[in-house]
Every structure is written in C-alpha cells, then in structure tokens.
Design the sequence.
C-alpha cells in the first residue's frame, strides 16, 4: 500500500573543508594547509619553519638557496629557534661549550600533534580558521650536551599556529629537574622582502625599499659596533649597510616592516622583551657558505623577537611562556 505522505529525505550536511596536515615519506617535515590555501612547512630538525605561504603562493619567509635541509646543520632561513643561549656562549657559564645560539635549532624535535580552530594566546586573533602544530624537545632526547647544561632537566613545547593572515609561534619551557637554570631564547625570523616576478602583481622588492617602525626613540645595542650602546633615533630603521641591533621596546609595542612605502608585516610579542634587527649585507653574506643566492641579502630582513638582553631564571618545577605573532599586511 502506498502512503499518501512519504517521509522527507534526511538532509545531508555538506562537507566542511578543514585544515590538512601531511608528513613527508622520510618523516623529516610536515606541511599544514588551510582550506583557503595558506600553508606552512616545518622541519622536525630544529622544529624550523622553513616556509609560510599566502593563498596566492607568495612565501613570507626567506630561505637560503644553500640552506642545509638534511639535518647536518642549523637551517639558514625560515624561523630557527634559539635556546638556551643567544649568540656565542659566554665563558665560565653553564652554556659554555654549546654552539652559537644553543642546541634547539640543531636538534630533532618530536611532533606532538595538531589541533584546528584553536584560540590564539595573543590578543586580536584572526578567528577560527587556523591549525596549530605542537612539537616537543626534552633533555632525554639529547644524546650529548657538551656543557654544564647536561646537569639540567627540561621540557619544551613549541606551538606553530597558521591562520589566514597570521603566523604565531610560542614556547613553553619547563624546568622538570631539581636544579635552577638560566636561559635565553629567540625566534630568529627571516622575513622575505622580495616577491617572485612570476606572481605578476608586485615588483621584486629590494632591501633599500624597506623600513622598520615601532623602534623609534629606543636606544639599542649595536653588535656591529662592538656591542656598544647607541642612542635612539627618531627615524624609522632603514638598511644601507650591515645591521645587527638589539632593541628592548615595551612588549606592547608593535613592530612594522614596510616595503615600498606599504606595510608588509606587523609583529606583536608576548613576554618577549627584545627585538633584534639583522641583515648581513653583501660582505658578510658572501662569507657565509650556506647563504644564497649571492644577492639574497637584498631580499630579507631578520626581525627576531626574544628574551636575550639578560638571563631568564627558571626555578625547579617552574615554567616560562612567550610568543610572537607575525601578521601579513
């Protein structure tokens, strides 16, 4: 018998696109992408972000064409992680004997997993369209630490969050042992200031067209000039020679990179007191075996956020958190 009124079909909800994460066949790197097309690539060696692309395929990070991506040495470009010392280790210190910038950028990290639509830890986050990758490093994962640091126990969680306009990186450093230790840390971000002509919509940039604002009226340590304290300038920073400066602006101060008179990046910080501006210029770049192409110094500027002007002391059982957000304008 036919029914006069047949039950209506159950509606099927359309599939909602979600962020995707893939791991390379050799388990050396991860690629995460959003449904809107933005993507990041992270090496497990150093947990180094080596690519951050917009939906149009434009990479916002500079990666040296001669960078070692096989785990043989720290990566030149992207966002290497500095820990537990910034620069050459000082003598007669627990970090003495470590390589420059410490061991984090030259250690293999563990991939801990992903989560989607995470709320940002920094203000003014860009919404729910995001994916967060977590990585871990602990003293038990290191076979040899040639310094007093072999006496310390620690655990680091590194989170990289990609959203449509932002890239956020954050660290949680825990002292899991019974000894107090001091550390420095920094995100050594290489920001791209050139655009491939193949994209067509923008001209290739040049470091001479770049300026950095947000650090005016802040004195700085000039490492090119022998780590001397230099007076503040009221003008934006421009790059016309080798630059290696450590600023300590208020944490609430936004730093903006402008290219061709238009904002390109905005950098905000959480619990990171210092901002390092670095460009090697022609001569120093030419002396780096892993820096390329030869004119690559024209195509990048490092705006590095960290806590490096002094030492952070971490008591047994305590933890420290800090992070940055880079917004693509």
Sequence:
């Amino acid at each position: 018998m036919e029914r006069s009124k047949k039950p209506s079909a159950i509606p099927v909800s359309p599939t909602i696109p979600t962020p995707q994460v893939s791991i390379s066949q050799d388990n050396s790197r991860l690629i995460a992408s959003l449904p809107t097309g933005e993507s990041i690539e992270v090496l497990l060696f150093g947990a180094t972000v080596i690519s951050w692309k917009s939906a149009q395929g434009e990479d916002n990070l500079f990666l040296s064409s001669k960078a070692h991506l096989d785990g043989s040495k720290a990566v030149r470009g992207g966002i290497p992680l500095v820990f537990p010392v910034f620069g050459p280790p000082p003598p007669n210190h627990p970090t003495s004997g470590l390589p420059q910038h410490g061991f984090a950028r030259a250690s293999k990290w563990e991939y801990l997993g992903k989560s989607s639509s995470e709320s940002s830890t920094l203000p003014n986050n860009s919404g729910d369209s995001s994916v967060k990758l977590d990585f871990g490093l602990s003293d038990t994962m290191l076979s040899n630490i040639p310094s007093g640091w072999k006496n310390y126990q620690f655990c680091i969680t590194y989170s990289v969050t990609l959203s449509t306009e932002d890239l956020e990186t954050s660290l949680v450093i825990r002292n899991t042992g019974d000894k107090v230790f001091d550390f420095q840390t920094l995100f050594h971000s290489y920001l791209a200031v050139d655009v491939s002509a193949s994209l067509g919509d923008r001209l290739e940039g040049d470091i001479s067209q770049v300026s950095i604002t947000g650090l005016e009226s802040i004195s700085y340590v000039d490492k090119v000039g022998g780590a001397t304290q230099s007076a503040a300038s009221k003008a934006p920073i421009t790059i016309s020679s080798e630059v290696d400066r450590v600023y300590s602006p208020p944490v609430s101060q936004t730093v903006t990179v402008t290219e061709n008179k238009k904002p390109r990046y905005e950098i905000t910080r959480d619990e990171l007191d210092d901002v390092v501006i670095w460009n090697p210029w022609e001569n120093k770049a030419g002396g780096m075996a892993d820096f390329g192409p030869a004119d690559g110094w024209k195509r990048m500027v490092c705006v590095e956020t960290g806590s490096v002007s002094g030492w952070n002391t971490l008591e047994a059982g305590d933890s420290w958190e800090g992070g940055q957000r880079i917004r693509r304008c």
Q: What stands out?
A: The CA atoms of residues 1 and 7 lie 15 Å apart.
